[in-house]
Structures are given as C-alpha cells and as structure tokens.
Write a structure and sequence with these properties.
By secondary structure, the chain is α/β, with parallel strands linked by helices. It has three domains: 167 residues, NAD(P)-binding Rossmann-like Domain (Rossmann fold, 3-Layer(aba) Sandwich), CATH 3.40.50.720; 68 residues, no CATH class; 77 residues, no CATH class. 47% of the residues lie in helices and 12% in strands. It is built from twelve helices and ten strands. The strands form two sheets. It has an eight-stranded mixed beta sheet with strand order 3-2-1-4-5-6-7-8, sandwiched between helices. Strands 9-10 form a two-stranded antiparallel ribbon. Helix 6 links the parallel strand 5 and strand 6.
C-alpha cells in the first residue's frame, strides 16, 4: 500500500503555531528617549529578543542606531507619532525633568506605558505622577547593572521594579507583563519593591560603592608585582566606578535623600578606625616612656630645681637617666606629630639640654632612684 498524501496536521505543527502566537503577544514596539550608552545597551538586547525599537535623543546617533536595526528620530514629534507601546526614559538623572518637559506627550496614545530606568527611584516616581497625564501607565524600574557589569550576560543580575500605575484592562496588564518578562527571559533576578524602599537600600549599597571607588581613585592606586586578590578587587572597583560619569555619581547623591546619612556614617566609621589606630600607638609610646627598657623598675618622677637637682631633695639625675629621658621626650614628640597636635605645653616639642632637662613640661621631669 502506498500513501499519496497526508491531510492531517502533526502535533508539533500546532505547538509551533502556539509558540509563534505567544512570541507575537510578547513582542512590543518600544521607544527609547535618551540613546546614550545605557539606552544603546538596552536597545541592542531588545532588538535581539525580537522587539521593534525606535529611539530619539539630542545627539545624532543615526549610524549607531542603524547598525543595531533601530529606527532613529532627531525630532521628538516624529518619534511620538510612531506611537510606541512603551516609552523608556533613559536620560541621565539630572536631565530627566527637562527631557520629560520637552517630550510632546500629547502625540502619544493615551494608553502608553512609561518606564524609567534611573538609578534613583523616588524622584522619578514623584515626577512622572505629577507631570504625566493620568491616563498613561507608569512602571518604575532599576536594572542593577550596566554595560560593564552586564556585558557577559544578565543571568542572576537584579532587576528592581514597581508597578506605580497600570490600568486594569487586560491589554495594558499584558503589555506591562511582557516588558518585565523580557528581563526575566534574559535571566534577571526580578525584585519587586517600592521606590522608597529601593532608595533606602541603594544608598547603603550602590552609593557607598561609588563613593569608596571614587575615594580610592583619587588616591591614584596602581597595580604592583605583589598585589593580593583583595587589592585587585579594589582596583577593579576603581575601574568600574571611573567608567561612570561624575554626573551619575552626583545624581545618586543629590536625588536620593538617604545618601547624606550614609555619607555621614562612612565619615564617622573612618574617624573611629583612625582613632583606634592612634590610641593603640599612643599606648605603646607611653609604655616606652614610663616603663622603657632603661629602667629596672617603674620610675618615680620629681621636678628638678633651677640648679639641676630635684625639688624632693634627691640627687641629680645620672647621665644614663638623663639620656633615657631625652629618648622618651623624642618618642613623645614623634607621637604628637603623628596625631597632628603640638608637643609640650608651649606648642612645640621640648628640646632636652645637656643635663637632661628641657624647656617643655615633659623634658623637665627627671627620674630618681
């Protein structure tokens, strides 16, 4: 028997059609406002995932956009008349307010989903709620990575988000879900939390990281032949923070009201560590002064009279004892210099005389047997 035709559809045909339909449902038309380094970073992945991406920015990025199959507009009016389903605000923190004010929102559909991807969250949340029409949807997000940390893939990297305002219509819910699923499919760890909670946590993590990196960068640390793994990690931190603009760092400070508190805590912690080091150093110096190796027992102190004798009636100091006190006075002066405080009562370290006395209060002390 010979089969001439097969009229029945195989099961895998139906599964293939379902996958295609599901993919089309997840496909979005995404517009990016601000096509700088981070905007391009997002656009490249979104195009690879099958989304249609358009972009606009102040600078001419036509060639870069064309290279990644992104349609680019220099005129924001033309951009908005393309009616993207999702508008990503990828400008800098400092310029967001001006960028939003210049965007002709009235040319967009009233159901447009606005998404911000800034590193601070409470500020853009308040701004979007205040300036955008009440009909549009708002999703505040923070991809906790960038072109450097995410160049090898996004798997395991954190993606914070808050559904600030998304209408209940199924289509608008589907669109917000599809946008978030893009990051989930890329392997991100999805973290849903409020913008206020985000800023509290980010001030003690991201802002502190940038601060320490910039402090170490200001020290101009260099690699050496004997670097430890820990030091290499510090150099890597310096490189990562140096690649970000100071404008971004200032934005993390200025537009997160929790940053000032963390900066104060960092300064206080440094002062405490420094004070502990100096206190331990002073304890060692005092031990040498009062219980140095030149003494067989703890010395008894007496003030000398003008003739070089002691006021308590004891005999003048021996040359060995005088030399010991000269050494002690030198150690005390060195400790005072380390602390940045003047030595002696008169504001300068006392210089011992030939008989073991000195012009300072410490130098006037003399050991007696």
């Amino acid at each position: 028997m010979r089969v001439l035709a097969l009229d029945a559809a195989f099961p895998f045909d139906r599964e293939a059609r379902m996958r295609k339909e599901h993919s089309q449902q997840l496909r979005l038309k995404i517009g990016i406002v601000g096509f700088g380094t981070f905007g391009q970073f997002l656009a490249r992945r979104m195009v690879q995932a099958g989304h249609e991406v358009i972009a606009t920015s102040r600078s001419p990025y036509h060639d870069i956009a064309a290279s990644m199959n992104v349609k680019y507009f220099t005129d924001a009016n033309d951009f908005c008349e393309e009616h993207p389903e999702v508008v990503i605000l990828a400008s800098s923190i400092l310029s967001l307010e001006a960028v939003l004010a210049a965007l002709p929102v009235q040319r967009l559909k009233r159901s447009t989903l606005f998404v911000d991807v800034l590193s601070v969250k409470e500020f853009p949340k308040r701004l979007l709620l205040r300036e955008l029409p009440p009909e549009v949807d708002i999703l505040c997000t923070h991809p906790m990575f960038g072109p450097d940390s995410g160049k090898g893939g996004w798997t395991g990297l954190n993606m914070q988000f808050e559904r600030v305002r998304v209408a209940r219509e199924p289509e608008r819910q589907r669109r917000a879900d599809a946008f978030l699923q893009f990051f989930e499919r890329e392997g991100c760890n999805m973290v849903e939390m409020t913008c206020e909670e985000h800023d509290q946590l980010a001030a003690s993590t991201q802002f502190i990281t940038h601060t320490v990196g910039r402090m170490l960068g200001a020290m101009q640390l260099q690699a050496t032949p004997i670097d430890t793994k820990g030091f290499q990690s510090l150099l890597s931190l310096v490189d990562n923070t140096a690649n970000d603009s100071f404008e971004l760092y200032y934005g993390l400070f200025m537009y997160n009201q929790n940053s000032t508190e963390q900066l104060d805590r960092l300064e206080k912690a440094f002062d405490e560590v420094k004070a502990r080091l100096l206190q331990q150093l002073h304890d060692k110096v005092r031990q040498q002064i009062f219980y140095g190796e030149s003494y067989s027992q703890p010395p008894r102190l007496a003030l000398p009279d003008k003739t070089g004798g002691s006021s308590g009636g004891s005999s003048p100091a021996s040359p060995a004892q005088a030399g010991s006190w000269q050494s002690a006075a030198a150690v005390a002066a060195a400790a005072a210099a380390l602390e940045g405080q003047p030595g002696g009562e008169d504001g300068a370290a006392a210089a011992p005389t030939s008989n073991g006395s000195s012009n300072g209060s410490l130098g006037r002390l003399e050991a007696t047997s």
